[in-house]
C-alpha cells in the first residue's frame, strides 16, 4: 500500500518539484547576481533539455494508456 502511494503521480510530481525548483532558483540567482563569473553555456543546456524531452517521448512510451491520456492525445 505504501509503495502504491509513493509511486502515485502527485507524489512523484511533488518529489520532482522539490528537486527542480530550488536548483532552478539557485541557478537563476547565480546568473543574475554575478553575470561576469558565469561561464556556463545556456544554449547548450537548453539543447540538452530539448534532446532529453524528445528522447523521453520516443523511448518511454506509455504501454497502458489511461482514458484521460487518450482524451488528451497522449
TrEMBL record:
This protein's GO CC annotations: membrane
Q: Where is the Peptidase S54 rhomboid domain?
A: 8-61
Keywords tagged on the record: Membrane, Transmembrane, Transmembrane helix
| Cross-referenced Gene3D superfamilies | Rhomboid-like
Localization recorded for this chain is: Membrane
Q: How does the record say this protein sits in the membrane? A: Multi-pass membrane protein
Q: Which InterPro entries match?
A: Peptidase_S54_rhomboid_dom, Rhomboid-like_sf, Rhomboid_IM_Serine_Proteases
Tell me, in one coarse class, where this protein mainly resides.
membrane
Please indicate which superkingdom the organism of origin belongs to: Eukaryota
Transmembrane ranges? 12-30, 42-60
Q: Which GO terms describe its molecular function?
A: serine-type endopeptidase activity
Q: Which family does it belong to?
A: Belongs to the peptidase S54 family.
From the Swiss-Prot or TrEMBL record, give the protein name. Peptidase S54 rhomboid domain-containing protein
Phylogenetic placement of the source organism: Eukaryota, Metazoa, Spiralia, Lophotrochozoa, Mollusca
Gene expressing this chain: ORF3288
